[in-house]
Amino acid sequence: MLFNSISYLLFLPIVVILYWIINLYAEKFKNLFLVIASLFFYGLWSYKFLSILIICILLDYFLGHLIARKRSKLYLLISILCNIGLLVYFKYSNFFIHELTEFLGLDTSQKFNAINIIAPIGISFYSFHGLSYVFDIYRGKQEPTKNIIDYALFVSFFPLLVAGPIERANHLIPQIQSKKRFNYTQSKEGIYLIIVGLFKKMFIADSLAEYVTSTFDAYQGYTALSLILAAVGFSFQVYADFSGYSDIAIGSAKLLGFELLSNFKFPYFAKNIKEYWQRWHISLSSWFRDYVYFPLGGSKGSSTKTIRNIFIIFSISGFWHGANWTFIFWGLTHAFIYLIYTLLFEKIEVKSTLAVKIISILFTFSIITFTLIIFRSKTLLDAYKYLRALFANLYDCPEKIFNGQGLQNMEVIYYISLMIIIDFATRKNERKIHVPMIKYSLFIMIFCIIYKFITMNESQFIYFDF
Question: Are 93 and 123 in contact (CB under 8 A)?
């Protein structure tokens, strides 16, 4: 069930109304109801893999209690191996098989055509929920949850089940166990966020997707300006798409009295690569920091170990996004850029004037966009050819603005500008849409969303593939 679907717009209010009725008259059953609703939500999407989700819930629930009771690394290791094992099997088996057959020179079509492994949707997210829970129990930062329904809701809560944010037990479980009282202001903020999120996804991201896809698929026939705009367009497409999802997830949770972790803090206003990673996909970045980077030693050891840890963390982050060399190379590229900044430029003091801030923001965004060409390409060779075509056609930049490509370029600039305006207007607090310009534009946004519902098919969110 997609967030940007009629079925979800029917599902959500029904769940919200029934939840508050149950909370009022049979409070002890409210979490059980949300678990059933969440499993129904997931089952409609992927009923074949519902058993995998349930197994992961039961596994980490019981292992969490064993870890707390015996403080044994064995049970922690079992949880890690099971969660990572399932993730690797479903998400990366085809990649490893393909690479192995290529390395051995085997005929893939004859030897391995029977293997057709499909990854359960959301497995990258709900497996990380379970892992963070058992890690925190082992470290003594989290008590095991006594009620299995409470833990099941922590992992399966439908707003965050498919694409995050990746929650922490010490943040969400206390909310699950607390008494709930309907809050009108919180619910109003939730509705605002859902509207803004749908607008970002359906009107900005999906509109940019048409131009980005056509340009990346046939880059040889486009001018340098069009190729640059397609790369910039993809930067804003993936941002509008994923931040739009996060807005809808946070907004949906607000309607039920929950506050989820923030996933974005206006990353394209970042003044350097380090700040960018503190603002982009925050729940994932902080997860890797706390459960991989710090346990490896972080930056406390020698420079060699720090460099090693940074390359490990970014390599894993790249591979987490997908079983493709483009994602791995994208991660390694970010590791290299991150190291250059932290080792050479971070300690340089520069007077923080408005001009310096703007230049820093534009420079950082340009680097991010350059790396996203690798991220977006199907293969590393495609990324190389795209960049080669871009630089080879630079002499075409002063093209006529109203030729065929020029009109498309202007449309892309329009959608990018809308995203920048939304971010700038809400930059002080992304959760509370109290900015007059945005509040009074909600009716226009609703009209645009309705128009897109009528004229376009439902499109999957980009991060569902990850």
Answer: no
Cα separation, 214 vs 208, whole angstroms: 10
Low-confidence residues in the chain, pLDDT < 50: 111-114, 399-403
Instruction: Dump pLDDT digits (tens) for 68-93.
Output: 888 778 999 999 999 988 888 888 77
Q: What is the pLDDT of residue 18?
A: 96
Tell me the C-alpha distance between 24 and 84, whole Å: 40
Q: Write down the catalytic residue from 98, 171, 281, 321.
A: 321
Whole-prediction pTM value? 0.88
**Structural domain contains residue 209:** yes
321 part of the active site = yes
Return the structure tokens found at 256.
Answer: 């039920």
Question: Coil, strand or helix: which one is 179?
Answer: coil
Tokens of 300: 């406390």
pLDDT at 63: 93
- The count of structural domains within the chain is 2
Closest CA to 258 of 198, 168, 194, 190: 190
359 alpha carbon, distance to own chain's centre:
27
> Which residue in this structure is represented by tokens 């993809």?
234
Predicted local confidence at residue 335, as pLDDT? 93
* DSSP-H helix ranges across 426-441: 436-439
- Sign for the CA dihedral angle at 94, 99, 102, 106 comes to negative
Same domain, yes or no: 387 and 449: yes
Residue 425's domain comprises: 185-272+346-465
Residues 6 or more apart whose CB falls under 8 angstroms from that of 53 comprise 39, 42, 120, 122, 126, 155, 156
pLDDT score for 258: 95
pLDDT score for 250: 94
Q: Which long-range contacts (CB under 8 A, 24 or more apart) does 401-408 make?
A: 405/222, 405/223, 405/225, 405/226, 408/211, 408/226
CA dist 226 and 215 (Å) reads: 8
